[in-house]
Design goal:
Elements: H1 9-18, H2 21-54, H3 58-61, H4 76-85, H5 87-118, H6 124-134, H7 140-152, H8 161-168, H9 175-187, H10 191-199, H11 204-215, H12 217-232, H13 236-241, H14 249-267, H15 276-303, H16 305-314
Helix pairs in contact: 2-15, 4-15, 5-8, 5-9, 5-12, 12-16, 14-15
């Protein structure tokens, strides 16, 4: 169909509703910015809500009308949360169980992905299929065998050995996905670089350390961030393999939230509404969440610039 302007229907309606190309570009830009601001607000709303509630005293917390802006700003909740969580010892334990397994997992996954991408060995396709199929298995199917194995190996002493072994053996956070991303990335590495290094007398391990690792720094940074966030928030593994006095921040935060729910349920049976215990727990609950998440929130902006470059490097190119 054509109209009097002798143009297709879709072009006619574009001209009628949007006008010129310049006007259409302005309208589309406004739509995109409104959409992005809306999405950003949806993601930031829980953080802003918790941050606001963490600086309220118990009067504001129990006042249903005080939702966002507290009548009195207080930082005593943070001090009480730090004391309750034994923050610095828990933070140090959290760093240990997050940093070391992350480094081990990313390094091993990079090596495995490089091996699958560059070397042809018997059963290569079969092992790749098994690797992909294992990605479909829930992690709960191997938690109990791992626990029994580490118990027989006398590793239930509160050390980091179980965490490191799980990372090295490919049972860490999304290890299979990490291997597949590295596999696709290493397939794009120019073969001429490897051949030139082999002519110069470099062995396989030297090629990997001196050529492959520097070339894959951007995608390794992305994998390090994703793995570290997962290890940082992993309270279940710490609950199984660490002692009570070695609990990291996520496990302590979980216990605080559980106590908050229990005390809120008990308060309904006490005359006068909320019990004093529930008041104290509510005061430190939100501040504890902010304090536990603070290290990751501080680190994240510094590695954000590697995200786009890393994802584009590991993407499938047609």
């Amino acid at each position: 169909l054509h109209f009097r302007e002798n143009m297709p229907v879709k072009d006619y309606f574009k001209k009628m509703f949007f006008g010129s190309n310049e006007k259409r570009g302005i309208i589309m830009g406004v739509v995109v910015y409104v959409l992005l601001i809306t999405i950003a607000f949806i993601y930031l709303y829980p953080v802003l809500y918790m941050f606001s509630r963490s600086m309220m005293d118990k009067t504001d917390l129990l006042d249903s009308s005080a939702k966002w802006i507290p009548s009195t700003l207080t930082l005593s909740n943070y001090k009480q949360a730090i004391d309750t969580m034994d923050y610095w010892n828990s933070l140090w334990k959290n760093i240990q169980i997050a940093v070391l397994p992350t480094i081990a997992q990313v390094f091993i996954c990079s090596m495995v992905g490089y091996g699958f991408a560059r070397y042809k060995f018997p059963g290569r396709t079969l092992w790749m299929g098994i690797l992909i199929l294992s990605f479909l298995l829930p992690s709960q199917t191997i938690d109990m065998p791992n626990y029994l194995l580490f118990q027989q190996l006398k590793m239930m002493d509160g050390s980091l050995k179980p965490f490191l072994l799980l990372a090295v053996l490919g049972q860490g956070f999304k290890s299979v996905l990490c291997i597949l991303i590295f596999y696709n990335f290493h397939r794009q590495t120019p073969q001429s670089l490897i051949e030139a290094a082999e002519i110069d007398g470099a062995d396989h391990f030297t090629i990997f350390l001196r050529i492959i690792v520097p070339l894959s720094r951007s995608i390794m940074a992305v994998m390090v961030v994703f793995a570290m966030v997962a290890y940082w928030n992993d309270w279940f593994t710490a609950l199984i393999y660490l002692k009570a006095d070695q609990a990291p921040l996520p496990l302590i935060l979980r216990n605080i939230l559980i106590r908050s729910e229990v005390s809120a349920a008990q308060s309904s049976t006490i005359s006068g509404g909320y019990a004093e215990l529930n008041k104290i727990t509510e005061m430190i609950k939100f501040s504890s969440i902010i304090v536990a998440a603070a290290p990751m929130l501080i680190i994240y902006p510094f590695v954000q610039k590697y995200f786009e470059q890393g994802f584009m490097a590991g993407a499938v190119k047609g």
